[in-house]
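Budget justification aside, the reviewers requested a transparent look at the raw inputs and outputs of the sequence design task funded under Objective 1. We therefore reproduce one unedited record. The lines immediately below are the structure tokens for a 98-residue chain.
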């Protein structure tokens, strides 16, 4: 079985190619923050393991804009420890929507 048939059979890559040559991805998640103002035992984002820091928009902007030339995304999820604590959250929201 070739790769394309395997992917289709197992629905591993539900992305679709568009007529304009771009690929559409149903959902992508951006983890932009390791900081959280809670410390929940068993946190599934590992914020209870003393990870610190956040991803700044300007550090990723150029790469993400380049990817935007090749892909469309149906749903964008911004995640983190607590994304609202990221000082560049507004830039992330505006940048990912452009």
């Amino acid at each position: 079985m070739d790769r394309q048939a395997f992917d289709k059979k197992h629905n591993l890559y539900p992305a679709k190619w568009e007529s304009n040559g771009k690929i559409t991805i149903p959902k992508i998640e951006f983890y932009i923050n390791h900081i959280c103002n809670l410390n929940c035992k068993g946190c599934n984002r590992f914020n209870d393991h003393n990870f610190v820091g956040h991803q700044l928009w300007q550090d990723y902007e150029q790469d993400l804009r380049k990817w935007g030339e090749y892909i469309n995304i149906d749903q964008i999820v911004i995640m983190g420890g607590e994304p609202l604590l990221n000082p560049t959250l507004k830039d992330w929201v505006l940048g990912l929507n452009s």
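The mean pLDDT is 81. DSSP finds three helices and three strands in the chain. Computational costs for records of this kind are itemized in the attached budget.
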